[in-house]
Design goal:
Helices cover about 50% and strands about 25% of the residues. With about 180 residues, the chain is α+β, with helices and mostly antiparallel strands. The protein folds into two domains: about 60 residues; about 90 residues, Alpha-Beta Plaits (2-Layer Sandwich), CATH 3.30.70. Strands 1, 2, 3, 4 and 5 form a five-stranded antiparallel sheet that branches. The longest helix has about 45 residues.
């Protein structure tokens, strides 16, 4: 068998570099053409096995999910009652020496078969008291969700007084 002609390689270092470059080129090509697809399929297979395992044990999670559902329903908003809302706001304003400036009629909006009821509550008082009222309505009493809270500093130049005016927009869903 004749020996291949490698006379273009001057010494063993060039031969070693050529062999190394050839090996790297072979490794990159084999990765791109074969091993990459196999590795991605193996990862996808592992993910599907995990999902299958989770779905097998999902029937045992039903009581836990039902318990979580009951907890969420218990913490849901109350049914909407405008008179109760007015009573709570008036009582809070009276106890904290605030002034209820405006409490107009509830606006109703229908979107995607859901009726949203929006209330505007305007009060005059300190920053802390207005924030406490918003917290009371949304979290303590669960009267609705505060979607907007705006503060305005109002000046009376005749009496040379300033006070803070808060506008709370409270939204609820009609059931």
């Amino acid at each position: 068998m004749p020996k291949p002609d490698i006379s273009f390689l001057k010494d063993y270092r060039q031969a070693l570099y050529a062999l190394l470059i050839g090996f790297l080129l072979l490794a990159v090509l084999s990765w791109q053409l074969n091993f990459k697809k196999t590795f991605n399929l193996w990862k996808a297979n592992q993910k599907y096995k995990e999902r299958l395992e989770a779905s097998v044990h999902s029937s045992s999670q039903i009581p836990l999910l039902e318990k979580q559902k009951k907890q969420m329903e218990a913490s849901a908003l109350r049914t909407y009652d405008r008179d109760l809302l007015l009573e709570k706001v008036s009582e809070f304003c009276k106890n904290n020496k605030m002034l209820l400036l405006n409490f107009p009629e509830t606006e109703r909006h229908d979107a995607n078969n859901i009726v949203y009821m929006t209330n505007l509550i305007e009060v005059q008082g300190s920053y802390k008291d207005i924030l406490q009222l918003a917290y009371l309505l949304e979290y303590s009493e669960r009267m609705g969700a505060v979607v907007s809270l705006k503060f305005n500093r109002v000046e009376d130049r005749m009496e040379k007084k300033t006070w803070l005016r808060g506008s709370i927009i409270l939204r609820n869903i009609d059931t």
